[in-house]
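User: Good morning. I'm curious how serine would be positioned relative to this chain. Could you predict the structure with it bound?
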Amino acid sequence: MIKDKILVIGASGQIGVELTLALRKLYGNANVVASDLREENDLLKGSGPYVSLDVMNKEMLHVQVIRQNFTQIYLLAAILSATGEKNPNLAWSLNMQSLLNVLDIAREEKLYKVYWPSSIAVFGPTSPKENCPQQTIIEPTTVYGISKYAGEFWCNYFHQRFGVDVRSMRYPGLISYKSSPGGGTTDYAVEIFHEALEEKKYTCFLKPETYLPMMYMPDAIRGTIELMEAPADKISIRTSYNFSAMSFSPADIGNEIKKYIPEFSLMHNPDYRQAIADSWPKSIDDSIAQNDWGWKPEYDLQRMTKDMLNNLPAGRQV
Ligand code: NAD
Ligand code: SER
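Assistant: Good morning! Here's the predicted structure, ligand included:
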């Protein structure tokens, strides 16, 4: 029986906070070390160990892995789609080099498992818009999407060539009330809740009918852990799994919020992120994840909206 010790890189981010807390429940607080370039997120404080770490510094990362006997790494550090378009070189450099550093160390130190998320951003304008399949035309147009698609093939390469058990899924836009999103095109679906509760109005940077694949954070965290806990012989995709829960537009989520906050007013002022959203599929076919390791989401738009409004600090019992 392997005694796992886990390093979460990018633990102060939108996913990192909740994933770290979930992993600590499963593996024990002391066995899950949170790390980030920025300071420890308040929600993590007191729940377990934290180290300040730059994933680009391979030597320091390697030293940590050896010193602390890590058996698994969850690599969440990245620059997301919208921020990536503002600084393409930095996005390419961080998104690629962080993954190569982790995969190299995983190979050298024979780590038990590695997790690295890809994104629906791998798909581009030539991919099918509805129920986009796992294998299809993939021609991403953002630097973020290009880095994620290249990363998927690095994962596959390290698995095939060196036997590294690296697992991945293409997250849709993630919606959460605990930690804030970090520069993605789907961030509007979090901002809208905060603004609806605090200002009763929100100006969305996407057009009303822009449908995108989305998922509530509890589903994303549970799915990530289910993928990582699945027996290796159940994992048929070694690039990155399509992973899906719901699909909605700004108009849909606005109408759902209005059921609880009737005075809420939604306006639109599309910016450069509209072109990014338009290049992505509206919905995703994740039947391979369903068949391989039993993936099934629990939250739809209605259930998620109620839960978000109930849990945000400015929220109310709805
Ligand atoms: P985020 O921006 O909220 O968090 C990323 C964290 O990485 C930040 O806390 C940041 O400080 C840290 N970081 C940046 N550079 C670092 C470095 N050099 N060393 C160490 N840490 C560094 O991002 P997130 O939304 O939590 O995303 C996590 C992963 O999931 C990313 O790979 C992202 O591409 C992927 N993903 C996220 C979404 C989403 O909707 N949030 C969707 C698809 C894929
Ligand atoms: N939520 C992410 C983004 O918008 C998708 O990878 O960048």
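The domain at 6-172+216-242 is CATH 3.40.50.720 (Rossmann fold). The chain has two domains: 6-172+216-242, 174-214+246-311.
Let me know if you'd like a different ligand tried.
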